[in-house]
Amino acid sequence: MNPETRQQIEDFLYTEARLLDQRDYEQWVALFAEDGIYWIPAGDEADPNESVALIYDNKKRLEERLIRIGSNRFWAQQPATQTCRIVGNVVATEAPGDEIEVQSRLIMTVLRRDRKELLSGVCDFRLRQEDDRYLIVNKTVRLIEREQHFDNLTFLI
Amino acid sequence: MINERYSPAALPALVKDDRVHRDLFVDPQVFDLEMANIYHRTWVYVGHESEIRNPGDFKTTTIGTEPVILSRDTDGDLHVMVNACRHRGVTLCEEAGGNQKFFVCAYHGWVFDSAGSLVNVPEVEGQPPEFSPAEFGLTQAAKVDSFRGFIFASFNEDVPPLVDHLGEAAKFIAMFADLSPSGSVDVSSGVTRYQYEGNWKQQVENSMDGYHAAITHHSFFDEVLQARIGRSMASIVSGSSPAKSVALGNGHSLIDFRDFDRKAILGADQPKSEVDWHNGVRANLEDHDYAEEVIRVNGGDGFNLLVYPNLVLINNQIRVIQPVANNHTEVLAYPALLEQVDEEINVARVRAHEDFYGPASFGAPDDIEMFKRQWQGLSRSPSMQWLLYNRGLHREERGEGERYSSQVTDETAHRGIWRRWVELMTAEVQT
Ligand code: FES
Ligand SMILES: [Fe+2]
Fold first, then answer.
1. Which residue's CA is the closest to the ligand 1 atom numbered 1?
2. How far apart are CA B172 and CA B403, in angstroms?
3. At A93, which CATH number?
4. What dihedral angle (degrees, nearest 10) is formed by the CA atoms of B257, B260, B263, B264?
5. What's the number of domains chain A is made of?
6. Does a structural domain hold residue B430?
């Protein structure tokens, strides 16, 4: 992979992370391809059809999340969760069909009311290049905390 | 010293017909009494048969705050054993589940078999001659029994038989299982877990609360569903809904949506997989009217069932409530899969679970937020003395025995739960 492409991919990941931290969810959902999938497994599973996930969203359901986020009665986000994330250890490889596989590590501080937590994990992206920009075909976040009891995961990771 | 207000003679004064004192939620001493008088006295749900199908299978869970191992021994019999080595109390099993013939303590190496018997003590010649390994098997629940795949245990030797304890709740557990053409559900798709700062009774009550849904879940029932299916579903839990709040006796209760005609609203189109599934249910059940009733319930909005104190069946979900401390509760939510149906039916059930019940879903997080806010309000405000449970007192109807029924936005189920709470908390203490 040439250094320029690699730089573009890193920039894309940083932008994606920034949109989430800024809670600019509309822009963030727009990064997903029409057939995009956003998956946060609840265990070690490989097949989302056989195992319940924390999140397994297609684009339609991601757009439904925007309805909740826009609602003035989305109680679990009143007050909103603050996040600050660091993305690193980026490894990108070319995949068939003009797609790129990218793996990164994520560490994020999560703050809501007076409760602060740390979430960490591995993010696997499949990106597709379309009209000079990247679209997310798949984003899978394997949290090291995935088998913990969460009290609120209604912010996005 | 136990506060005199919580003695069997005084306690009923804190639970009136229409209100309950805040201390029953916020005082840690009440929590300790509940663990002894409720969780160690009645039947408690510990797991599903599909989690431990084979000899040697086990899972770890809790009865109240007490960690236990649910084990199927090599003869196929079920045991519920305290997860603490009889030598010096070290946790015996750290795994969530698995299959093994023996549990070996990591500290000094005592070995227990899958039935809880002590079968090996290293350097046994150091034990005095009168030492009898038979006396040092794992402490076991006095009773273990299962009904339609749902396994319950009790530490109380004198507890009534499980079917008597379940009463009318048994009929609804059966309907939940009979939605599967095999007659039993399966929890193999795993679990989502959540926790909150608050008391276990908040989740119990919320599971039976028809009154909150239109408000707490407004962003889902009104806003998301408006976009998804073109209409709100809030009418199912409105004051004019035919749905009911029902106390079944023994604390078990029901939100009964069976008179609400979803098909009339959502349309009756059925994909082939669903037709096949329903025909499978019909083929499995001899009683035709019952089969049609089960199909009408359809894993959709048929009923929410509470099997007091810690099991809830809602739509596709098996919910297990685990008290940790008076101000800390964990909840496990398992999608209930069906057997002998097309794969797409179960995939849809898993996706429906993620839609409303997980910690990132469109439903449960708003409930959890209410538990936290309720806990803040109750625990910080001694002047907020009484919680009200008066809705429907003037219009509920008493049926046979301890059965009471009223409109879905009433608190009839809650009053039944509190009657049972008082009964258990004031009964003669068995030791
Ligand atoms: S504590 Fe288990 S063998 Fe000593
Ligand atoms: Fe709710």
1. B88
2. 14
3. 3.10.450.50
4. -170
5. 1
6. no
ipTM for the predicted complex = 0.96
User: Which amino acid is it at B130?
Assistant: E
Q: Judge contact between B120 and B110, C-beta under 8 A.
A: yes
Residue A150 token pair: 């969460």
Work out the pLDDT band at B264, boundaries 50, 70, 90. low
Q: Inter-axis angle of helices B272-284 and B288-297, to 10 degrees? A: 140
What are B176-206's pLDDT values in tens digits?
999 999 999 999 999 999 999 999 999 999 9
Q: How confident is the model at residue B269 (pLDDT cuts 50, 70, 90)?
A: confident
CATH number, domain containing residue B264 = 3.90.380.10
Ligand 1 is surrounded, with C-beta below 6 A, by B 85, 87-88, 90, 105, 107-110
What is the token pair recorded at A67? Answer: 């309805």
Least confident of A13-22, B53-62, B234-243: B234-243
Distance CA B77, CA B207 (A): 32
Q: Cβ contacts (< 8 Å) between A55 and chain B: which residues?
A: 354, 358, 360
Share of chain A above pLDDT 70, in %: 100
β B66-72/B57-63 pair status: antiparallel
**Domain encompassing residue A87:** 3-145
Helix H, strand E, coil C: the string for B4-22 is HHHCCCCHHHHECCCEEEC
Torsion of CA B261, B267, B272, B278, to 10 degrees: 10
Distance from CA of A44 to the nearest CA of B (A): 10
Number of H helices, E strands in chain A: 3, 6
The model's pLDDT over B294-307, given as tens digits with 9 standing for 90+, comes to: 988 875 568 999 99
